[in-house]
Amino acid sequence: MTFSADMSTTLNRILDTAADNLRVAKILVQLGLDPNNITYDAIFNRLLEIFLANITLANMFALIGAIFFVATLLTQTMVPLRVANMIGCAFFAGFGALTGTVTTFLLYLLMVPINAFRLRQMLVLVKKARSATQGDTSMEWLKPFMTERKYRKGDVLFRKDDTANEMFLTLTGKFLVTEIKVELPPGRLMGELGFLSPDNKRTATVECLEDGHVLTITYEKLLEIYFQNPQFGYYFLVLTSQRLLENIARLEGIIAQSKVTQQAAAASGPK
Predict the structure, then answer these.
(1) Summary mean pLDDT of the chain
(2) What does the alpha-carbon distance between residue 98 and residue 56 come to, in Å, rounded to a whole number?
(3) What is the pLDDT of residue 220?
(4) Would the pLDDT of 2 be above 90?
(5) Which residues on adjacent β-strands are paired with residue 201?
(6) What percent of the chain has pLDDT over 70?
(7) What is the 3-state secondary structure (H, E, C) of 207-223?
(8) Under 8 Å between Cβ of 243 and 195
(9) CA dist 73 to 94, 134, 206, Å?
């Protein structure tokens, strides 16, 4: 009891000292308080009156929008972040409409469809990433994140041991992996192994056999997509594993054919 009394006395002294300060006294007067009769109850009641007097539908919209904006700062994954951002922008747009602030209304109203579009892209990415477990290795889902580039016959897209910084997806034309003499038709992935290699070096040379178009995406963008949605990492591993297995099968076929040729040459040789 003695401690509570001492604490109350100390707090009252602090209030009295603050009230004696002219600057603080002016603030108290502006708040509608009497500097000569200031108590915690009076401060609380006055602040409560100000709060209740300023409760409007527009301010409530702004408050809810601010809550969802803070939620976007605390969210670690992209899909919930986009959802929270859309809701927050919708409430801020409502605040702008109710207060007649055209710039605020138009700004946040424009951000709603932008976030909706990016959310749809990420949901498609999630769906395709999950379908990778069932063997669907289509690259259609990645196209919105890629940029188009044109190559002419004889152009070299990249050379073996070059520093790699982007991945390719063929759209039209034909391309040749020169080291193993394999043609890549439209719809094939190129340069993805450089993304996984420790030093980001090209593992082969690719040359354009006839005019064609490709889609490109930088490794930085791939990393961004991965960190936005870690499920993409598994999907990408499925794609690259499939490519490696195809290369192994191709090399096994070349080795088997070479052995058959050697055996045939040995059998037809001088006895």
Answers:
(1) 78
(2) 10
(3) 86
(4) no
(5) 163
(6) 71
(7) EEEECEEEEEEEHHHHH
(8) no
(9) 21, 35, 43
Query: Can you read off the two tokens belonging to residue 142?
Result: 């990645």
3-state secondary structure of 204: coil
Joined together, the tokens standing for residue 240 give 């690259």
Distance between CA atoms of residues 66 and 68, nearest Å:
5
Rounded CA gap, 185 and 239, in Å?
Answer: 17
| C-alpha distance from residue 125 to each of 65, 118, 233 (Å) | 28, 11, 11
CA dist., res. 163 & res. 177, Å (int): 17
Checking phi first, is residue 269 left (phi over 0); if not, alpha (psi -120 to 50) or beta? Answer: beta
Which of 72, 85, 76, 79 has the alpha carbon at shortest distance from 123?
A: 79
Cα–Cα distance list, 271 to 128, 203, 258, 267 (Å): 61, 43, 22, 9
Beta strands in the chain (DSSP E): 147-151, 156-158, 166-170, 174-177, 182-184, 189-190, 206-210, 212-218
Q: Which residues contact 203 (CB under 8 A, 6 or more apart)?
A: 160, 193, 194, 197
Q: What is the mean pLDDT of residues 113-125?
A: 85
In one letter, which amino acid is 171?
L
Pairing between β-strand 212-218 and β-strand 182-184 as defined by DSSP bridges: unpaired
As a whole number of angstroms, the distance between CA 56 and CA 94 comes to: 12
